[in-house]
Amino acid sequence: MSAALLQTLRERLGAAAVLTEGDLSAYEVDWRKRSRGKALAVVRPGNTEEVAAVVRACAQAGVTLVPQGGNTGLVIGSIPNPQGEQVVLSLQRLNRVRAIDRENLTLTVEAGCVLQQVQAAASEAGLFFPLSLGSEGSCTIGGNLATNAGGTQVLRFGNARDLCLGLEVVTANGDIWHGLSGLRKDNTGYDLRHLMIGSEGTLGVITAATLKLFPQPAATLTAWAAVPSVAAAVQLLGLAHQHLGPGLTGFEMMGRYALSLVDHHYPQLRVPLWQDHAFCVLLENADTESEAHARARFEHLLEVALESGCVADAVVAENLSQAHNFWHIRESITMAQADEGPNIKHDISVPVSAMVAFVAEAEAALQAAVPGIRLVNFGHLGDGNLHFNVQGPASMAPMAFIDAHEAQVNTIVYERVRAHGGSISAEHGVGSMKAGMLPQFKDPTALALMRQVKQALDPKGILNPGRVVG
Ligand code: FAD
Ligand code: MLT
Ligand code: ZN
User: Fold this and answer.
1) What are the Cα distances from residue 226, in Å, to 48, 201, 221, 349?
2) 387 within ligand 2 shell (Cβ under 6 A)
3) Residue whose CB lies within 8 A of the most ligand 1 atoms, among 64, 81, 147, 425, for a mutation test
4) For ligand 2, what atom is nearest to the CA of residue 427?
């Protein structure tokens, strides 16, 4: 059966687009290198009709598919299982910018466009596409929509979902839904776009999207502020909302231990202010005011924050290159912790008003359970989203700690998340890493409805089985 399928795929796409030999690890191993799969084949169609042909052929053969973009996902959702029975459907060759409409402020791109390419296409047109993630040099817009990615601009512009107006999707039986549209208003029934966004390749294969664009900001100001506690960071966030209004585009908090890893692995980045303070905050203000006007407001905010004691020290970036360096430090935490060795990763959200209590309770409970654990705590505090990662005590080998304590640590963290009305996956998705936890943490009626949706849209279970709803 699988030999016949491979033959059909080669005939339809050409042999060069159907990979079965050589080093396929880029498609088979997850970004964190925690999980390794084995593909029956990696298939690389070049256009939407070819994607539809692949899905039809696989459905007919009863072979399941794993859609894949840049394979930067962090929840094990984009690699095949180890049995060598699944086809990886790579969207990377669908990488054309199809259209830009400056008056309508929209951009239509294919799913395999790398996020940086999308940002560049907007910028070349004198406009701005705000989605921004540390992985933007390799993640794809299709993957961003399939995971409803967050990143560092959510505070002002929302998640990937909020930036998408239309989609083109190949359904589980190989039909093409031509839903590309630049309309900002369209109430003609159920919004299938929102069903597909965040469905992690389990309901359809995104092949193209129409995205919202924005005017480029006239002035962007960036500051690095040292704060004594999470409570102080939350207080600073309140002041930033009050003084900057919609100009506040980014508010990232980074714990001392997380920054020490960057300092240790990338000393050339010269992390400011980290040694003497429990947390640092990276704030960004971007709007249409003149630079002088915006800077005066930004500096006034920091003066108020210093006077109130919630900020202990602060540096405003003098120029673009210093601002880039601040962001580079923030985005390097993920790599620095990977260099340090594996840890137990969490991507949680709670209401900002519950953040202080959540962190205090979870940290105390973790220290009581495993004395000496180290928190790699950082993230998008402005969105109530932390990467509350737990590294073992210095005396324990990383994998020994994970093997012995992962379940216990997850229970401690996720029970506190639940107690504060939060989510066990704020922005990375469910994948197969958290699929088993949904029955415990998701409302049972919601989960039952999700399973009915999956059954209705993919009755044969062809698309990314084992992910999200299991
Ligand atoms: P993949 O990893 O290839 O796939 C992810 C999921 O989407 C899989 O379930 C896959 O089956 C599905 N999928 C992919 N393409 C399609 C498609 N065209 N149609 C249907 N399904 C598809 N995430 C954040 O939200 N915020 C961050 O700040 C952030 N920072 C990161 C920083 C680093 C250094 C790294 C490594 C990751 C980061 N991520 C972040 C996680 C990751 O980059 C995002 O989840 C991203 O959206 C995944 O895009 P991708 O193209 O790599 O998708
Ligand atoms: C980030 O905010 O840097 C990402 O979501 C990646 C991570 O959690 O490591
Ligand atoms: Zn993040």
Assistant:
1) 49, 40, 17, 23
2) yes
3) 147
4) 5
432 band by pLDDT with thresholds 50, 70 and 90: very high
Check if 464 has its Cβ closer than 6 Å to any atom of ligand 1. Answer: yes
pLDDT digit string, tens, across residues 211-233: 999 999 999 999 999 999 999 99
Comma-separated ranges of CATH 3.30.70.2190 domains in the chain = 219-334
Domain with CATH 3.30.70.2740 in the chain: 341-419
Task: Decide whether any atom of ligand 2 lies within 6 Å of the 158 Cβ.
Answer: no
Rounded to an integer, what distance in angstroms lies between the CA atom of residue 464 and that of residue 442? 20
* DSSP letters spanning 231-279: HHHHHHHHHHHHHHGGGEEEEEEEEHHHHHHHHHH-GGG---S-TT-SE
Mean pLDDT of 77-89: 98
Query: Which among 74, 329, 339, 423 is the best mutation to test ligand 2's pocket, defined by most ligand atoms within 8 Å of the CB?
Result: 74
pLDDT at 1: 65
Q: Return the exposure string of 245-284: e unless at least 16 CB atoms fall within 10 Å of the residue's CB, then b.
A: eebbbbbbbbbbbbbbbbbebbeebebbbbeebbbbbbbb
The rounded Å distance from CA 329 to ligand 3 centre is: 14
pLDDT of residue 132: 98
334 lines ligand 2 (CB under 6 A): yes
66 CB within 6 A, ligand 1? yes
Which CATH architecture describes the domain 341-419?
Answer: 2-Layer Sandwich (3.30)
Q: Determine whether the shortest distance from the Cβ of 140 to ligand 1 is under 6 A.
A: yes
CATH 3.30.465.10 occupies which residues in the chain?
97-215
Distance (Å, whole) CA 28 – CA 24: 6
Q: Quote the pLDDT of residue 470.
A: 82
Of all atoms in ligand 2, which is nearest to the CA of residue 331?
A: 3
CATH number of 2-90: 3.30.43.10
Q: What is the pLDDT of residue 292?
A: 87
Q: What is the CATH number of domain 97-215?
A: 3.30.465.10
Determine the Cα–Cα distance for residues 84 and 315; give it in Å rounded to an integer: 53
**Topology given in CATH for the domain delimited by 219-334:** Alpha-Beta Plaits (3.30.70)
Instruction: Answer whether 0.85 is exceeded by the pTM.
Output: yes
